[in-house]
Amino acid sequence: MKNFMDAIRNDTSINAATAGNGWVNMGVLGWKYFGANGNQPPTAYSKTNPKEDLSESVKLYMYNPDKLKNSSMKRYVFIRDHMFGGIEYANGTQKKS
Q1: Which residues fall within 8 angstroms of residue 11, CB to CB, at 6 or more apart?
Q2: Are strands 93-94 and 89-90 parallel, antiparallel or unpaired?
């Protein structure tokens, strides 16, 4: 989770939430995402917390990659490179190389 959360931040050298810089646990208020345009959780449900963000992002990576790319290329690249070893999908089917 930490790797995912760091990968989608705009700047890992500053605190999360600074200048739209990622997920922050607000204690009793729960999780809140502060992100720039072009780097947003891909669905309404994925805005719940970072685990749901990752889960929904992986689902879209496999079944609707264009939607994921349009909401956050950082999420797409992280999932492609660090979770699927460069293998890409469309409609749940692995793309041919």
Answers
A1: 18, 19, 21
A2: antiparallel
Query: Which DSSP string do the residues of 32-91 spell out, in sequence order?
Result: EEEE-TTB--SSSGGGS-HHHHHHHHHHHHHH-HHHHHHHBHHHHHHIIIIISTT--EET
Q: Whole-angstrom Cα distance, residue 1 to residue 91?
A: 25
CA 94 – CA 97 distance, rounded (Å) = 9
Q: Per-domain residue ranges for the chain?
A: 2-94
The bridge status of strand 31-35 relative to strand 89-90 is unpaired
pLDDT in tens, the chain (97 residues): 999 998 998 777 777 666 667 898 889 999 999 888 899 999 999 999 999 999 999 999 999 999 999 999 999 999 999 999 999 999 999 988 6
